[in-house]
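Title: Prediction job returns without error message
Component: structure pipeline
Severity: low
Priority: P3
Assignee: unassigned

Description:
Job completed but the reporter wants confirmation the result is attached to the right record. Sequence as submitted:
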Amino acid sequence: MHDSTPVVSVCIANYNGMAIIDACLESVLAQDSDVEIEIIVHDDASTDGSESYIRTHFPKVILLESTENVGFCIANNRMAKIARGEYLLLLNNDAELFSDAIRTLFKAAQSAKQPAILGLPQFDASNGDLIDRGSLFDPFLNPLPNLELQRTDVGMIIGACLWIPKKLWVEFGGFPEWFGSMAEDMYLCCIARLQGHQVRVLPDSGFRHWVGTSFGGGKVHGNRLITSTKRRGLSERNKTFVMVLAYPPVLFHLILPLHLALLALEGVMLTLIKCDSKVLKEIYLNCFSQLWQERSRLSQLRRQVQTSRNINITNFLKVFTLIPHKLRMLIRHGLPKIY
């Protein structure tokens, strides 16, 4: 990190990340690259002292201190607004870059024919296993890990480590702040693909990720998926929002009604099996309620998104698979544990 004008602004949203922020920041400072980097951290009203710790131990980091907890979307929008770099690298506080990560991303960005969203292979920080090389989608926008080395064109790059030209970020309007958290990366990648931009994972380098540390849940333990009501609720709601906004007309009219019917059925079945009405109320009924409450905003934004569409449905579907991911997970791991 130098004092001259940066090429890349690394944006790190932090909330109570005292135990993990050291490794994240050190991985950025240790980059094997001549690219000028600035580091911006948005502290989301942490209560664990990480705000003062960052200020004391990493004085060159640009620290934005929020007086209230605003969530991942607003945090990243605030950092992007003041970022001076030509490129943004959104990085989770529970992620650690390989030493050649920024050099690899910058080289790929410079050689790209047009602005693109780029990502790196994601590895489990707890055991070193490959988690994914970006994600594909099933018909209901559930992300499926891409594990193929030769496949670089993907549906989504996870927001834990997402590279985007700032110009493109500004053009898209950043993250929808009303999403709060979850699926904002899915939204950004779907909008990019609709406008004809590549969403691409690079075959080399990578980052380590302590999955679930920053938000809780979302990881398989003992061959069983464990998640939280809050995480699942936000995921189902925001994923549905993205479907409403991004699906071209044919898919929208065909898939959305089926998605909503299956979501209702899933909610009733899980509630009966687990004998817990909280599951139905906080995840599924909340999703339908929020969809209705946001109908005007969604309708207006959908018109804007679809008007700027520059891709045909065949190319849009190239990153989709037919088999529903939830069915795969149910067969492989059984019912999820929701706490």
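Comment from assignee: result matches the submitted record. Residues 137 and 320 are 5 Å apart (CA to CA).
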